[in-house]
Structures are given as C-alpha cells and as structure tokens.
Amino acid sequence: MTDTPATPRRRGAARTEELLRVTLDLAAEVGYAGLSIEAVARRAGVGKHTIYRRWPSMAALLLDALSLVWASNLDYRDTGDVHADLREQFLRSSHALASPPIGPIYRAVIAEAQADPTLRATLHERFLITVEQSTLDRITRAQHTGELVAEANLEFAAEVLCGTLYYRHLLSTRPIDENAIDGLLDMFMAAYGTSTRTRVLCPPPGPQRPDAM
Amino acid sequence: MTDTPATPRRRGAARTEELLRVTLDLAAEVGYAGLSIEAVARRAGVGKHTIYRRWPSMAALLLDALSLVWASNLDYRDTGDVHADLREQFLRSSHALASPPIGPIYRAVIAEAQADPTLRATLHERFLITVEQSTLDRITRAQHTGELVAEANLEFAAEVLCGTLYYRHLLSTRPIDENAIDGLLDMFMAAYGTSTRTRVLCPPPGPQRPDAM
DNA sequence: CCTCCATCGGCACGTGTCGTGCCGATCGAG
DNA sequence: CTCGATCGGCACGACACGTGCCGATGGAGG
After folding, report:
1. Which of A41, A48, A126, B106 has its Cα between 20 and 30 A from that of B11?
2. Residues by CB within 7 Å of nucleic chain D, which ones?
3. Domain A67-192 indexed as CATH 3.40.50.1000
4. DSSP notation for B155-200
C-alpha cells in the first residue's frame, strides 16, 4: 500500500520529493514560462505554504530540482584519450542542457540569478564550480599522462571549456553541435596538447615523433 | 527655447530619446530590480501608453537603451600587438559590463532572453554577434600580419574569447580581472600565436626564427 | 487504541506589474 | 484657427507574490 499513487492522501517529508518531481514535470511540459510557485502548487494539489515551508523562493526550489537530474551528467570517462573523453562529455552535457527537464529549469535559474547575487553565488558554487572541477580533474589527469603540456594553467582552461558551452547555450541561437565542440577542442588541444597533429606550424625539431604510424 | 529642460511640456518623437535616457538613469540607480515599464513611466512622468506605443515590451526598450551606451565599447585598437590590443579591449569591456548603466541593463535583457527565444535571437544578433565580429576582425588582421598562425579557425576563437568573458560575468562570482584576462589570452596565444614565447614545449625546429629581433 | 499537535489543503488578503481601454487636455501641422 | 494625433492620468481584469488564518488530516507518543 506504500506505492499506490492513486490517492496517497498526504505525507510528511516525502512530499518534498514529490514536489521536486512535479517541478520537473512542469518544466518539461510548459517550459520556462509558467514556472511559478503557484503553478507548482496547483499542479501538485498543494497549498502554497507547503512549498514555502521547504524553499524560500522559486529559485531555491529550482536549484534542488536541478540537482535531482543534473548530477548524473558530470562524470567524464577516462579512456586515455582526453580529446575523445572531452568530446563525448561535451556532447552529452550540451544535449542535456537543451532538453526538456534540465534545459528550462537551468534557464529559469540563470535568469533569476541575474537579479540576485546571492543566488548567483549559490548557482555558481553548486553547479558551475562542480562542472569546472570535473573537467579540471579530467584534463589534469591528461597532463599527468603527458597528453597535455606540463606548464599549462589548466584551471583557466577548464573555465574556458565550460564557459564557451554555456555562453553558446545562453546567448546564442547557434546549437552546441559537433562542429562547435570540435572547434573548441581544436583550440584547446592546439594550446595545451603535446601531440603535433593539430599544430601544423610547429613541427617536431627532429626524428622525435614520426607522427604515430 | 528648444533646450530648456525645465518644463518642456511634451513633444513628438524626441520623447523617445528622453525615455531611453530615463531608462538608463533608472538602471544606474535602482539596478536590475525595479526595472519595469511602470517604473520607467512613473520616473519619466509619462503614461504607460507612451512607452507601449514605441516598444512592445520592456526587453525591447532595454535593448534600445543598451544600444545607446554599448556601441562605443566595440572598437579595438590596432597597435600591431594583438595580445596587447585584446587585453586592453577585454579590460574595457569587462569594466563596462560590471558598471552601473550597462551592467544592470545587460543582465536584465539576458534574463528576459532566457524566457523568449525571439528576444534571444535579437540580443545575439544586435550585440553578441557584433562583439564577436569586432574581435574576429582584429585577430584576422593579426593573422594577416603573421602574429597568428594561418590555419587557425578564428571564428571559433573569437567566440571562445568573448564567451569566456560573458560566462564569467553571468554565472560566476569571480570578477573579470587582469588575472582572468591574462589566463584567457595565454591560452589563446598558445593555441594560435606564432611567437614561441609562450610555447615552451615546442621550440622552433632550426634557425628559422631567432625570436623576433 | 486514543490523544495531541505538527502538518496539511484551501481560501483570502494586500501589493505589485502586466497589458489594455477610455478620458479630456495639449500639441503641432495644415 | 482648426482638427487630428499624441499626450498624461486613471482604471480595469488578470496574474504571481508572500503571508495569514482556518478546519481537517494523520503520524508519533502515551
């Protein structure tokens, strides 16, 4: 009797999870517009107090809802090929960013964050920092294996990589397609890669590297 | 008697300019919050109709107001040193982005653009594209003078350069300071620069380039 | 099993903005 | 001077905000 969603009446704190799911559903169906506390309350058949008791603002609710579905998008694979791993991850992330549940909510949070420095800090700390750190970890490993040059300031590199994707998503009409990602990665590898494949103007000084096979 | 701003009563189309100035003042004083059509109308002592007759929405008004003060921030100098010119321009732009009249308005437009794809397209076309193009022009010139490698895809480079600045401004709590700009430019020059100063791991193959003088 | 109290859904309020409609005053061109 | 477009002012209904109060519901402690 614990999983008959027909008329489970009401509960204590498990209602929190239900409200988050309702928020995700609402975002997926009606998008950014129509994302309001009143709408969530109506949709969930819930008094507004039930929401305000848990989250101080719509933005806080959206942040928690976003956590529910965004966490799984942060793991880079490590096949030993940074370029390939970054490419795969960027493709996955950009697809998630553009898709229904995550896309509208992320947009809504970012929009509200423009009006509220505190929210902006929270958003940065809980999501963007995490994304950058995840990227930094992967490329730092690549640095250790010699795929990237040792002297590179990879913190900036991670920020540039992530920032470019978000920039295109937020302020551009262009999609984040394979073209964009390849261009971005070409620049990244040209700057920090040790392979000579992409650095046409700077051939190896001697018979050091016959360019793979 | 055309320039006594004491009580010029009312006018025809010159009122448009006055409304734009009021919008800028309002943004400078009260910031993002309190930027509403009603607020502008109240501040200007104007009926809301007078605003709605000229702009279909607050966002459209903000776009025009932004044009008034943002246009002057797009000219790159050309001293023959790309790195220096980009650095100077980025410093100027980031300072403008963070300062009162432009900062809040830009933030407001971007926030509203998240809810309206059409507005996003207009914003991209009228501002971001222009910024990117201006950057692209400058680095293309640098490519022609040999400061940058010939094979580089500079369109992506321009997008990455501008995008990183906007990303930090919109989604980060970190300021766009000299550190950030230098890190960004280091990556850019490492990827596309022909000088060997920053490319430690890839020395010139022979006596081809004794490093400038 | 029953009592008690935190939590619930529902309703209402006052505030603020939105976009629109209508009014009479004001202006500027003809 | 006339007349029509534009003006400021006011009001409206709709919507979301955040808060307050109500009676009921239901789980924890006795």
Report:
1. B106
2. A 9-12, 34, 36-39, 47-49, 52, 57-58; B 10-13, 15, 44-50, 53
3. no
4. HHHHHHHHHHHHHHHHH-SS---HHHHHHHHHHHHHHHB--STT-T
φ, ψ (nearest 5 deg) of residue B193: -70, 150
**Chain region(s) in chain A for CATH 1.10.357.10:** 67-192
Closest Cβ–Cβ partner in A114, A153, A204 for B186: A153
Q: Where in chain B is the domain with CATH 1.10.10.60?
A: 12-58
Q: For A106-123, what is each residue's pLDDT tens digit? A: 999 999 999 999 999 999
For the domain covering A12-58, report its CATH number: 1.10.10.60
Nucleotides in D strand less than 7 A from protein CB = 6-11, 15-21, 25-28
pLDDT of B62 over the 60 cut:
yes
Label residue B80 exposed, middle or buried (CB < 10 Å: 0-12, 13-18, 19+): exposed
pLDDT tens-digit map of B156-193: 999 999 999 999 999 999 999 999 999 999 999 999 99
Cβ distance A184 to B160 less than 8 Å, yes or no, reads yes
Measured from the Cβ of residue B126, the count of other Cβ atoms closer than 10 Å reads: 15
In angstroms, how far is CA A122 from the centroid of its own chain?
15
Helices B154-171 and A102-113, interaxial angle, to 10°? 60
Alpha carbon separation from B205 to A202, A203, A205, B146 (Å, rounded): 8, 7, 4, 18
